[in-house]
Amino acid sequence: MAGSLPPLLLVGCGQMGGAMLAGWLADGLAPSVILDRHRDDIPAPHSVVRQASDLPDDFAPALIILATKPQKAAEILPSIAHFARHAPILSVMAGKTVGGLTAALAEAGTPGATVIRAMPNTPSAVGQGMTVCFAPPTATEADRALCTRLLSAVGDVAWVADEAQMDAVTAVSGSGPAYVFLLAELMEQAGIAQGLPADLARRIARRTVSGAGALMEQSGIDAAELRRRVTSPGGTTQQALEVLMAPQAWPATMEQAIAAATRRARELAS
Ligand SMILES: NC(=O)C1=CN([C@@H]2O[C@H](COP(=O)(O)OP(=O)(O)OC[C@H]3O[C@@H](n4cnc5c(N)ncnc54)[C@H](OP(=O)(O)O)[C@@H]3O)[C@@H](O)[C@H]2O)C=CC1
Ligand SMILES: O=C(O)[C@@H]1CCC=N1
Question: Does the C-beta of 181 come closer than 6 Å to ligand 1?
Fold first, then answer.
């Protein structure tokens, strides 16, 4: 249904901005403007500009999505600050705080801008995203509803009341798809090591990861219970899980990995 989602200014259309845009386009997006140096495949009625100075002055987006790398925030914010006088900013940048972004916008001539944070993930491209949001008390119910509407078009949406939790969210669901893709890579390689032809190893590893995800999603059953249902006493899975679930194996390394990513998100704030 064309135009069911409001017009946006999407700043940065790389991996994450592009994933969300794919989901929004599939769901019907009112004419929007994408600011990105590289994209040249944006379908009409949407348009793309290469630099902020090319943005149409009279464009009135309902929301500005900030999806450049956190390291680019200082460069990009002054050039788009004036749009934030009339529309809230939704930042998906890892680590960057509402306070820091609001202060940068004020310094760029737009005091009192409304900044909301969101941490999406790339399955948004196929409507299977997970996005967690944080809004400061100054954001209105209408601002929050707008963000929920947009983000629920590309997956599930949750809100947290404590901004500090956004760093752990980033480590679990923002970065999380990479851990799952790594699992598929490693299962494929291990299958080859056990003598499987490479194309069969790739096919069964990919299908196993996506099929297990679909079963978990559609059944709603706890992951631990689904795991137990695969594990026949004295069978093959039990042997594998004794390796993977040894305290120093996945339980420890996953905790360390999530802690490292959470720390990095905190560092990216400045
Ligand atoms: N990738 C992911 O899975 C996730 C990413 N995020 C967050 O999303 C944000 C974007 O990440 P990601 O999509 O991976 O990054 P990308 O580098 O893939 O995308 C950013 C895009 O913005 C462009 N860009 C940056 N500055 C400008 C500018 N001044 N004018 C025009 N275009 C510009 C970049 O071009 P160029 O490369 O030339 O600078 C690039 O095409 C990050 O803040 C990240 O923390 C959040 C959740 C998940
Ligand atoms: O790796 C990163 O920093 C970004 C944030 C979450 C996923 N990708």
Answer: no
Among residues 209, 203, 211, the alpha carbon closest in space to that of 184 is found at: 209
- Looking at the fold, whether 24 and 65 belong to one and the same domain comes out as yes
Residues placed in the known binding site for NADP(+): 67-70
Please count the structural domains in the chain: 2
Distance in angstroms (rounded) separating the CA atoms of residues 181 and 178: 5
Q: In what order do the strands lie in the sheet with 155-159?
A: 47-49, 33-35, 8-11, 63-66, 89-91, 115-119, 129-134, 155-159
The whole-number pLDDT of residue 58 equals 85
Residue 56 has a pLDDT of 85
Cα distances (angstroms) measured from residue 256 to each of 19, 56, 171, 226: 28, 46, 11, 24
pTM of the model: 0.96
From 170, 262, 263, give the residue whose CB has the most ligand 2 atoms within 8 Å, as the site to mutate.
Answer: 170
Taking CA atoms only, the protein residue closest to ligand 2 atom 1 is 175
Which domain covers residue 257, as residue numbers?
A: 176-269
| CATH number of the domain where residue 217 is located | 1.10.3730.10
CA of 145 to the centre of ligand 1 (A): 25
User: Model confidence over 9-26: pLDDT tens digits?
Assistant: 999 999 999 999 999 999
Nearest CA among 47, 43, 53, 102 for reference residue 80: 53
ipTM given for this complex? 0.98
Does the beta carbon of 70 sit less than 6 angstroms from any atom of ligand 1?
yes
